[in-house]
């Protein structure tokens, strides 16, 4: 056990005199140099979640207080439910018999003139 103690004390004494290569020359060798890495005790003194002051929550009428809940403000879910009806084949046939179609119910035909082909076109309209 004495050899362990003596070897560690020798190592500690040598550590004082032997420097790392970057501490011999360069910016780290300057006596005014401070390491940019903070120590563990300096890094985060207090937790970010801890508050320095107790929050002051204003109180007023419950109707005028803004509701922070998402689902209360979500307009997509605020719609009335969609009414769905299932039609049987007999119902559709009955509706089709009752319905009469008029010419004005359909869109107008956009092409009313007849297209005339030129029979004298050589090579389908391309000249050779």
Would you write up a description of this structure?
The protein has a domain of about 25 residues. About 30% of the residues lie in helices and about 0% in strands. It has five helices and no strands. This is Ras GTPase-activating protein-binding protein 2-like. It comes from Hibiscus syriacus (Rose of Sharon).
Large-scale geometry? elongated
Major sheet, described briefly? Answer: none
Structural class: mainly alpha
- Give the ordered list of helices and strands: HHHHH
Q: Which spans of ≥5 residues are poorly predicted at pLDDT below 50?
A: none
Q: Whole-Å distance between the termini?
A: 109 Å
Number of contiguous helices:
5
Helix content: 25-40%
Gyration radius (Cα, Å) is 45 Å
The number of E-state strands comes to 0
What proportion strand? Answer: under 5%
Q: If you average the pLDDT, what whole number results? A: 78
Protein name: Ras GTPase-activating protein-binding protein 2-like
Based on the model shown, name its key terms.
mainly alpha; Ras GTPase-activating protein-binding protein 2-like; 30% helix; 128 residues
